[in-house]
Amino acid sequence: MARSLKKGPYVDVKLQKKVAGKRPADAGVIKTWARGSQISPEMVGFTFGVHNGKQHLDVLVTEEMVGHRLGEFSPTKKFLRHGGKMQKEMEQKKQESEIAAAKAAKAPAAK
Least C-beta-crowded within 10 Å: which of 8, 40, 43, 79? Predict the structure, then answer.
């Protein structure tokens, strides 16, 4: 649900102080845990280290990001793959086809 227009956007106060009066080139990476803070136009060009629960991921703020939350650009879960026997078979077939294609490409070049 959207935040009330009467209240205005939520921007973390500490984050605003870190950005105020600085240039993006001089600031470096600004570490923050405020994932819920909205990106304001003053933040464009800065690089934020947004905490994902384990580490800080670097997020370079662009104009298209204004109005979104910092946490949207720092995923908290890492997708590996869907597991199981069927997935392993599919990956093995794909690998074999890539090897066959590489061998086929080398064969005409050798003649």
Answer: 79
Q: What average pLDDT does the chain have?
A: 90
Are residues 75 and 52 in contact, defined by beta-carbon separation less than 8 angstroms? yes
Shared domain for 61 and 109, answered yes or no, is no
| Confidence (pLDDT) at 57 | 95
Structure tokens at 9: 């956007």
The range of the structural domain enclosing residue 110 comes to 80-111
Q: How many CB atoms lie within 10 A of CB 53?
A: 10
pTM of the model: 0.69
Supply the CATH number for residue 31's domain.
3.30.860.10
Alpha-carbon torsion (103, 107, 108, 109), positive or negative = positive
